[in-house]
Amino acid sequence: MLEYTDFEEKTIQRTEIFHGKIIDVAVDDVALPNGGTSKRELVFHPGGVAVIALTAENKMVFVRQFRKPLERVILEIPAGKIDPGEGNSPERTGARELEEETGYRPASLEHLYSMYLSPGFANEILHIYCATAITKVENPLPQDDDEVLEIYELTFEEAQAAIADGSICDAKTLFALQYWELLELKRRKGLA
């Protein structure tokens, strides 16, 4: 059986390229396990949280927003980065982001899964939660100054149509819809 050391790339030198509001970028010179060397371009991110929020009417809550890297508008589940001080409590980030982006507050959040989004170059981890018993808040937390969002509540069929037309195209939201489909199957079989 191959061990970790059979694959480990040892950092020879790190060059820090950029320190930003959301990410830091570095280039590492690495020694490869086969004796060669290479460069690795790395993105460091504090991590994020995404929330699957279902209404009492069995609709999923989405936000529609412009995404500059894609140069287009897409539909996504509510999500955001973990702010300083929230690192040990992604659940707190999830509750905050859901309220800021949608005006909904959950009775509780259930952690479903944590995943690395692009481990080939970034350490960003995304924690996905399912919100239960969401209620509209009269005076929700304010949205971030640099966010322009529209809130949508879609049925499962409407969400599937949004996938088909390309409005839903990001990994976290596709994961959320797969999870919702599993919930629906369990509900129909009387397991949920």
TrEMBL record:
Residue intervals of the Nudix hydrolase domain: 43-176
Gene Ontology MF terms: hydrolase activity
GO cellular component: cytosol
Keyword presence, Transcription: no
Keywords associated with the record: Hydrolase
Cofactor: Mg(2+)
Keyword Hydrolase: yes
Any one Gene Ontology BP term: ribose phosphate metabolic process
Region Disordered: start-end pairs: 81-101
Gene3D superfamilies found in the cross-reference section: Nucleoside Triphosphate Pyrophosphohydrolase
InterPro entries membership: NUDIX_hydrolase-like_dom_sf, NUDIX_hydrolase_dom
Name of the protein described by the UniProt record: ADP-ribose pyrophosphatase
